[in-house]
Amino acid sequence: MWLNIWDLKMFIGLPSHFIAKYVGPYEILHKSHPNMYTLKLPTNFLAHPTFHVLKLKLFMRDEQRLVWKQKM
Length: 72
Fold this sequence. Notes:
Distance between the termini: 23 Å
Structural class: alpha+beta
Shape: globular
Largest sheet: 3 strands, antiparallel
Radius of gyration: 14 Å
Strand order of the largest sheet: 2-1-6
Strand content: 25-35%
Helix content: 10-25%
Number of strands: 6
Number of domains: 1
């Protein structure tokens, strides 16, 4: 999954146009609630690893995109 870090307070002092909106992709460890997922984050990431689905974006490999487009 891609993680939306736009509103996380991780980059204090940097202008917003220097900060990427999404980072990742990260592996899903488990679904802790119907709308919450726990991600496998790097050790230097200073946020809690559980996020709401609104903060996540599905990661698709190029092969998956090609198969999906061919089905349409």
